[in-house]
Amino acid sequence: MLSTQFRHIIRGLWIVCLVTPLSLLMLHQPVMAVDTEPVRLAYGRKIHYAPQILAVKLGYFKDAGVEIDSKILLAGSQNAEALITGAADVAVMGDVPALMAVASGSPVCIVASYGGGENMHRIVVRSGITLTSASDWVGKRIAVQHGSSTHGALLLYLHKYGVNPDHVRIIPLRPTDMPDAMATDQIDATAGSEPWPGNILRRVPGAYALATLSGLGNNYPLMMLVNRKMVESRPDVVIAMLRATDRAIRFMRDRPEKAAEIIGRVTGVAPERELEVLKRLSWQVVLDSKVETSLAQTAAFLTQCCKLRESPKLSNMLDAFFIDAAGLSHGRAAITGFAP
Q: Its principal location (predicted)?
């Protein structure tokens, strides 16, 4: 969280900028950052980083005066590690690596969520297996990535529908191994985050989607984190990056097929598959009580499974200052399924 003194200084500068009507107008235009030092941005070639991929490819960061030095990594945990070790200035990732990063005591700040949604995770069941009642779950082999937000959501889902997790065989498994495990009848069902459920449905004949892990009080936010040095020395760049990200999300809403085509060229995934996931998730630059509640729920699970020693005090780690400064404090309607 920003120091009180620092916030007063920066807010004072913004008040000066707001004196004239022209300045008010400029708050809603792409902001030009005031320095040209490249920003090392850690993200990946994966649909979860769609706004960052688009902002780079369409030149939105450059339009905002931000030169990006892309650090392309394989997973959110690697993005978090790059930020913690100083190899990146800004990193984007899912909720679990974000929580691990802020709980590590490293000088990093959460400045926004940019996506997520209750449809992030789905349960997929192999052919010939029926899971319509609590008794159907007894003894079934359910694969999930241990310690992930999917894992925590699965436990909540089982509890909601009266299934005792102790009566289910929960098998820790990497998402990449789930299709083959189901195809060879080593597991009866999987719980995973997009795009893995879709991959299983395409690769395993007869597999079907049972449910999304929705209605559990969690929107599984995708997060943007910044190292504290950059927060304190280059706040204008952080603000410009948020606006560029928001601009990319608006492009996703207005031209979803074109967005999926551009993203597919980067990820190597067919555009129609990327479009399916884009529509399934929600996209918005925001930092609100729903994000905080979702992170708190996931942090409690991580503490329970000993991935965190204790739940971090999120109120000390979330600060909507940059959302406010970027003119996004009221937000737009979450772009779920690209509804206008």
A: periplasm
